[in-house]
Automatic annotation (TrEMBL):
Active site: C233 (nucleophile)
Matching NCBIfam families: nop2p
Biological process annotations from GO: methylation
Annotated Basic and acidic residues bias: 295-304
Pfam families reported for this sequence: Methyltr_RsmB-F (PF01189), Methyltr_RsmF_N (PF17125), Methyltranf_PUA (PF13636), RsmF_methylt_CI (PF17126)
Stated family: Belongs to the class I-like SAM-binding methyltransferase superfamily. RsmB/NOP family.
Swiss-Prot/TrEMBL keywords: Cytoplasm, Methyltransferase, RNA-binding, S-adenosyl-L-methionine, Transferase
UniProt-recorded name of the protein: NOL1/NOP2/sun family putative RNA methylase
Segments of this protein annotated with the region Disordered: 295-368
CDD domains: AdoMet_MTases, RsmF_methylt_CTD1
Residues involved in S-adenosyl-L-methionine binding: C111, A112, A113, P114, G115, G116, K117, D135, D180
GO terms for MF: methyltransferase activity
């Protein structure tokens, strides 16, 4: 057996599994299952299957999930850098499938880093509604934010908060909440030997206490009639059925939803019908526990009061993908101005209040002028007109001179540790608007007035991803009628956006950020 399991873990599993114990233990001698999940914000699953350089076999419980064969190395392909898929352990794809996310929903992913399930939720939302992705650990939110940016999520807010503070800021607000809880990670033992080293027989009880606190806070943020999914990648009953039974005992308004699709997996342990277990000896995956919980309150009678101006009006908060997008998106500028007006003068967020910044030196040591919020928005609007030909929608939120478009009114983020208030548009430097990388990754080629596509199987794609300058003749650019080829170009790989370049006289200056480069 490749993995050295703690004796007390093996004993516990023997007790738990009885006759199935041998089959379970046999899986530790087999290689772990690997998978990718297609990012349908950028490409349809059948299209990726068509262009994929390696074989992909469907994962039964996730229509966008595929097993990859050994040696496929999907992280080392330009398509990964174009955000066409996320590399994810196959059983970890199940919880979001059972959350039932619909475009337009308000979704909270409470324990979200590094973002596997958040990117899956973002794809289900298709740019409509909102995703609040949170993680308690500041370092881990960096990967979370980056993964959401890589997948091209336009409507995600990233927080670094405790569940209690989120519940206090968003009482009864979310339609769906995912709690992919911190756990003892017994299902990861085959993949990650560090998890084995960190485990001792007290570990499950320690996590169970944490999980109950998280569940309690999450319940306060769910709207009556809403759905909450609790999942772990561990086998210990106290962290799974135990945590849920403890939660239900104190929350009679909640129940386990038995008809949620959990029935396609092995049942949870008695006495919790309707919960699901993904066992590594029964499915091709490392293992998960899933409970789908519904708040049985009446959404009409127990409607939470509006939290901020515009709250409850999803049309105001939504940032529809495609509806306002495209080169002819009309009224978007007016909407931007209206939203800005609606939030101005009401205090603004902690960060938005910094929008009029003090004189300071820029990165080259030159004295930067004070840029007012109005100037930044005007500079952005000009950029959008000249480089995109349309105006993306959302509530403007400023961090200094950095502009984000948020799916939340900016006062909603007041006092919360906000890692990303929304879709990053860019910043103003020396009076010019510099577009952000996440703006590029979320655009389609059609949504930029200038674009260039590099073949995914050719050397130019890798050169671009390494940050190199490219020689590109003007006739290779796709430029909208009446637009000069000189300026920012959306660089795509086989038609899928990867980042910005700046073209002039046959040279494409590379704008791919240093921290994202192919190494
Ligand atoms: C199982 S991992 C989440 C994996 C993630 N959902 C994904 O699919 O990529 C659990 C996460 O919970 C975070 N965490 C731990 N305690 C927390 C708490 N009290 N509140 C919120 N997040 C917490 C950890 O930092 C960790 O990133």
């Amino acid at each position: 057996m490749a993995v050295q399991l703690p004796h007390s873990f093996s004993e516990r599993m023997k007790q738990l599994l009885g006759r199935e114990y041998e089959a379970f233990m046999k899986t530790y001698g087999e290689p772990p299952h690997t998978g990718i999940r297609v990012n349908t914000l950028k490409i349809a699953a059948d299209e990726l299957q068509r262009i994929s350089p390696y074989r992909m076999e469907p994962i039964p419980w996730c229509s966008t999930g595929f097993y990859t064969i050994e040696g496929a190395r999907p992280g080392k392909h330009p398509y990964y850098h174009a955000g066409l898929y996320y590399i994810q352990e196959p059983s970890a794809m199940a919880p979001v499938e059972l959350l039932g996310v619909l475009p337009g929903d308000r979704v909270l992913d409470l324990c979200a880093a590094p973002g596997g399930k958040s990117t899956q939720i973002a794809a289900k939302l298709q740019g409509k509604g909102m995703l609040v992705s949170n993680d308690l650990h500041p370092e881990r939110t960096k990967a979370l934010a980056k993964n959401l940016e890589l997948c091209g999520a336009r409507n995600a807010v990233v927080l670094n908060e405790s569940p209690e503070r989120i519940a206090a800021a968003f009482p009864g607000f979310f339609d769906r909440i995912l709690i992919d809880a911190p756990c003892s990670g017994e299902g990861m033992f085959r993949k990650d030997e560090d998890m084995v080293r960190q485990w001792d027989e007290n570990t499950p009880a320690k996590y169970a206490a944490m999980q109950r606190e998280i569940l309690r806070a999450a319940a306060l943020a769910l709207r009556p009639g809403g759905t909450m999914v609790y999942s772990t990648c561990t086998f210990s009953p106290e962290e799974n059925e135990g945590s849920i039974a403890g939660f239900l005992a104190g929350h009679p308004q909640f129940s386990v939803v038995a008809d949620s699709g959990t029935g396609s997996f092995a049942p949870g342990l008695e006495p919790l019908p309707g919960t699901a277990r993904l066992w590594p000896h029964k499915v091709k995956g490392e293992g998960h526990f899933i409970a789908v919980l519904r708040h049985n309150g009446d959404p009409e009678k127990e409607k939470p009061a509006g939290l901020w101006p515009g709250d409850g009006d999803k049309s105001l908060l939504a940032m529809p993908r495609g509806e306002s997008g495209g080169r002819n998106g009309e009224g978007s500028k007016a909407a931007l101005a209206r939203k800005d007006k609606s939030s101005a003068g009401r205090g603004g967020s902690r960060n938005a209040r910094n929008s009029r910044i003090s004189p300071r030196n820029d990165s080259r040591g030159r004295s930067a002028a004070i840029t007012s919020e109005g100037e930044i928005l005007a500079s952005y609007a000009e950029f959008a007109r000249e480089q995109l030909g349309w105006q993306p929608e959302g509530c403007p939120v400023l961090f200094g001179e950095h502009l984000y478009l948020s799916s939340l009114p900016r006062e909603a983020l007041n006092g919360l540790k906000t890692v990303r208030p929304g879709w990053y548009m860019g910043h103003v430097r020396s009076g010019r608007f510099i577009p952000g990388h996440p703006l590029a990754t979320a655009l389609t080629a059609r949504e930029s007035l200038r674009s260039l596509t590099l073949p995914g199987d050719g050397p130019e794609a890798v050169s671009y991803l390494k940050g190199e300058t490219l020689s590109i003749s003007a006739d290779r650019l796709t430029v909208a009628p009446g637009t000069s080829p000189k300026g920012y170009v959306l660089v795509c790989i086989d038609g899928y956006s990867a980042g910005w370049g700046k073209w002039q006289d046959g040279i494409l200056k590379n704008e791919y950020p240093a921290g994202w480069r192919w190494t």
